[in-house]
Amino acid sequence: MKKNSKGVVVHVGQYEFLKINTGKREWRDSYHWILSLSWPQFAGLISGAYLALNLVFALLYELAPDSIAEMPRGSFSGAFFFSVQTLATVGYGHMYPTTLYGNILTTVEIMVGMFGLAVMTGLIFVRFSRPTARIEFTDKVVIAPFDGQPTLMLRVANLRHHSMAEAEFRIMFMRDEQIKEGDFIRRFYSLKLHFDRIITFPVALTLRHTIDEVSPLYGMTAETLQKSDARLVASVVGIETVIQAAVQSQKDYSWRDIVFGERFVEIYTETGEGQLTVDYGRLHETEAAPL
After folding, report:
1. I want to staple 247 with a disulfide (CB 3.0 to 4.6 A). Which of 3, 81, 133, 163 is the partner?
2. Which CATH number belongs to the domain containing residue 154 in this structure?
3. Prediction pTM value
4. 20-29 residue pLDDT tens
5. Alpha-carbon span 289 to 220, nearest angstrom
6. Comparing 193 with 273, which gets the higher pLDDT?
7. Whether the Cβ atoms of residue 60 and residue 40 lie closer than 8 Å to each other
8. How many Cβ atoms sit within 10 Å of the Cβ of residue 142?
9. Cβ contact 204:283 at 8 Å
10. 70 CB neighbour count, 10 Å cutoff
11. CB under 8 Å to 64, separation ≥6 — which residues?
């Protein structure tokens, strides 16, 4: 396997990894890369590829201007727009190939246009049909008493206007720890939540982890969290009920985002007749809570 010494940058939340001496990308990786682009980047890529392809064929037509009838000699714009018409198989009929070279070149361009249209249609369909989870996590994680015990709390909200089904929640805690040999290693802990699965997830809820004697957070303070470079990663996996497909969303937090002595304000208000009002505008708001 050939090595890529230049390195590849991978972003995961607040982390940035530089992968060196990895295998070179395969051509199939381009499909995944294109799907990972934002819509403006995707539109720019498609537009740039379309213009570049027409420019190449325009130059090829310019090499033999007599091969295309009624194409002005030395007119690059004429060759370019003839390429646009041929690539799209429009064929207005004003200009047409008259030589073997012209016919071969237009045949190749038409084939390229047909394959290109099929690929572009498939990419656009996948981008539109791919389900995404519109989940919002609070900006910070709080630690405050709950039911008489110190509890780590994190709020998540479903931003879509329909419920998510079979939602699963996880919080991973990680920190640097010194082992007996004196080295420091990164340890990962899956925090036990009060509940980690819910049948239907329509609006917003708070994930809670009790900090007791068996919790990896037991006895830790803001200073020890900073010293061990503690971080959290929260994840939500569920089923999008409209498209019937699994979706996932996650957010990571550093020790700077963990706040002691605060709790989230109440965002639910009962208005009567079984209706609850949920104020998404106060999703991130907290209030003081004595430890």
Report:
1. 133
2. 2.60.40.1400
3. 0.74
4. 767 666 666 7
5. 18
6. 193
7. no
8. 22
9. yes
10. 11
11. 99, 101, 102
